[in-house]
Structure formats: structure tokens, C-alpha cells
Amino acid sequence: SVSAGLDLPGRFLFATLTLMTLIAILVFIEEAVYIYRKIPSSKRSIIIWINAAAPVISTTSCIGMWVPRSTMFTDFTAGIFFAIVIHKFLMMMIKECGGQKVLLRRFENGHFTISTGPCCCCCLCLPRVPITRQTLFWLKLGTFQFAVFRPVLIFLSIVLWTNGNYVLYNLSPKGPALWISCFIGALTLFALWAVGIMFRKVRILLKCKNIIPKFALYQFIVILNHLQTTIINIFATQKIIPCAPPLSSTARGSYIAQQLLIMEMFLITVISRVVYRRKYHDLEPPECVAEEPGDKKQAP
Length: 300
Description:
This protein is mainly alpha-helical.
């Protein structure tokens, strides 16, 4: 077993990280009970889903740390869950504006700025898009496609892996891992782009509802769960992270990524409890601050 091959400091580290994961789960359960009792039912499930992102990633990382052979399944589980959370975050911003109908009336003559990250932050020449029911549909489709196609691609990867055709660290053009990873990366960028477009429009309006720190926490989870893990895996495959028998370079890289994620997701879980624990009924009606200049303001 893993614990049998650890020295005393290693066992202490594993025990500490496991305790942090358990505390994160308890904090989330307490927060979910609070949300269920205090927040209207129209927003309840969305906010619980978003708050669950950090403890779920921490739990899957802890399982992967103790059971190394389950790493592929735990990483895929965390990836599928967070794909759904990205769509839920977009829907939360729409709900906090009062729903789609109220948002359309509020920004009746407004425009979306599509020259934003991560896809088009440098394309300042792109035109502004009117805010209509159709453009809202495309933004929701941008995150919904990620929540649908990523689980399908991950299921395909597991099927190929069980057959021996999918090797996670084999990025050869002849193997499926490179093409599946690139396709998932493209879907991820489009989903994040849709969220960024919506956030840029509503960030001033929803400032009183803590949307900026909520978006910051969401961005931290994206960066830490995707970019950080990818960089560590690249270092491991290039042998920059040295092997330490009986662990290979890739195994050590996986351990480092999992241990960092447990600590980071624990902090994000605690901070999320502070950010989301608000008396939401005191923030109604949804018109909190003035709109951005140039957009006609109309009360629902």
C-alpha cells in the first residue's frame, strides 16, 4: 500500500492533507445547509453546485493520492464536475440579474463586448454584439456544449485506455491523447470565453452581490485545476521533476499536483464560505448600481 512505503514525515503529510480534505467537506456540507435554508429555490441548486467545485476536486485529489492507480478516474471525475460548474456559473450571473427576461429588459439597448479573454482579448477591432435573446442563447450554448462534450470525450478516453490505446502522457500525433486533449482545450476556451463576455457586462451591476470575488474564486479554480496541473505534468514527462524510486517522474508529478490541489482547494472552500454567505434577500430588487455608460437603463 502507499502508507507502507512512507517514512514518518510522509505519513504526517498524507494525514494532514487528508484532514484538510475532510474539513473542506464538512465546511461545504455546513454551507450547503445554510444555502438550502436561506436562499430562494430558484438560485439554491446553482449556488450549491458552484460551492461544491473546490471540495469535490480536493476529494478526488485525496483519493488519487492514496490510490495512485485511480488517478486517471479521479482526474476525469473532477474534470466532468467542473465542466458542469462552468455552465452553472454563467446561469448564476443570469439568475442574479433577475433572470433572462429581466436581464433583456434591463440591457434593452446594450451590447456585449466580445473582445475579451481567453479567446479574443487582443482582437479589439471586433464589433460589439447587441444583447438579445439569441445572443444569450449562444452564450449559454457556449458553456452547455462543454458540459456535454467533455464527459463524452472523457468516456471515450477511458474506453481507449482500458483497451491500451490511450496513454495520458503520450502526446505523439499518432496517438489519440494529443487530439482528444486539443479538442477538450478548444471546448474549454469557448466555454471560458462565454463566461468572460457575460461577466464583463454584469460585473458593475452585480458588484453589490459580490460577483467580482466570486468570479475570482472561479478563475482560481480554473487556473489551478487545469493550467497548474498541465505545467506539472509537462515537467514530469520532460524529466524536469526527477524520479525518486519507487516513484517515476510522472508518478511524482502526479503526487505533487494532487497535494498542491488539496491545499489550494481547502483554502478556496473556506474563502467561498465567506464570500457566498450573504443575506441574499437584502440585495433584492436586482437593480443594485447604475449601468455602464452608453446603455439605456430600464427597470423591470
